[in-house]
Amino acid sequence: MSQTSNPESLEGLAVPSEYFPIQRSASPTPLLSLNRFPQKQENKPSHTITHGENSVLSLACSDRYIFTGSQGPHIQIWNLITFQQEAVLKGHLGGVLCLTLSNDQKMLFSSSGDCTVRVWDVDTLKCLYVIQVCDVGDLFSVVYCDELDTVYIGCQNTSILRFDLSTKENHQTHNFPYSCNYSKFFDNIPPTTNACEIISSVEEEEIDAKICAEQENVCRYEVHDCMIYMNSHDGYVYSLLLGENKDGRILLSGK
Q1: End-to-end CA distance of the chain
Q2: Where are the WD repeats (predicted)?
Q3: What's the pLDDT at 111?
Q4: Which of 41, 58, 83, 230 sits between 20 and 30 A of 65, alpha carbons compared?
Q5: Domain boundaries, the chain
Q6: Which residues contact 223 (CB under 8 A, 6 or more apart)?
């Protein structure tokens, strides 16, 4: 006949743990809060805007408009109140990778895979001028410092560009920067019939944008080598942000 011993009478004896399982207290965190996919999603989006089949790569918002950029070269403008599309900005020849506004919301800056930054008048929705640079790859990020009237650009070749708009007339050019016939997003796809079918929606916008660029009459300004800070990172400069500390205005960059 077996007899169950009292744990208190077994002091000093090695007793297998399976005889006396550990009694767990209640978890301080409800298990439901650890679920990555909650059963109820109370905060659902009120509106959704799309670029057709293109991924949205960049966003900016003013008191009046939402600006969206995508793999295609066009910038879509949406009414902030009604969420209806109001206009399309044409001119870039590559995907619109970054959008940012000046502090007074009078200028919109857009950087692209076509090696240019375009400056737009938010009131007239017209392109004011184009800043262009060669041999740095895609322009992933752009910020504008109102106090210095200066544009900072983050590039694919790990460099950061600095362009002083107050001296832009000294750097005017009539040349166009080199740009690929196909979106760099699909560089690994050879120019075959199947490839053209894959990028057809983007390519149609690029053809339309090229026609608009050839017909437009805007000034172009070129970034010179002295404005390029090479090897700012050891990778693509995907993001830029202006900040301020005890030393004054600072530029933050991420890769």
Answers
A1: 73
A2: 89-130
A3: 98
A4: 41
A5: 56-242
A6: 131, 132, 133, 153, 161, 163, 171
What are 151's two structure tokens? 């544009």
Tokens at residue 121, please? Answer: 């008048």
Contact 154, 242 (CB under 8 A): no
Q: Where are the beta strands (DSSP E) in 94-138?
A: 96-101, 107-112, 116-121, 126-132
Q: Which amino acid is at 181?
A: N
Strands annotated E in 35-146: 56-61, 65-70, 75-79, 85-89, 96-101, 107-112, 116-121, 126-132, 139-145
The residues, ordered by sequence, that sit 6+ positions from 5 with a Cβ below 8 Å of its Cβ are: none
Is 56-242 a domain of CATH 3.40.190.10?
A: no
Token pair for residue 74? Answer: 């066009």
Residue 92 burial (10 A CB sphere; 0-12, 13-18, 19+):
buried
CA-nearest of 83, 90, 91, 89 to 64 is: 83
Within the chain, what is the greatest distance between any pair of CA atoms?
Answer: 104
- Show the tokens assigned to 57: 């790569």
Instruction: List, run by run, the mean pLDDT of 10-residue segments along the chain (255 residues).
Output: 49 52 52 51 74 89 96 94 94 95 97 96 96 94 96 96 96 76 44 44 62 74 94 95 91 94
Measured distance CA(110)–CA(116) in Å, rounded: 8
Do residues 139 and 223 make contact, with C-beta atoms less than 8 angstroms apart? no
CB atoms within 10 A of CB 66: 19
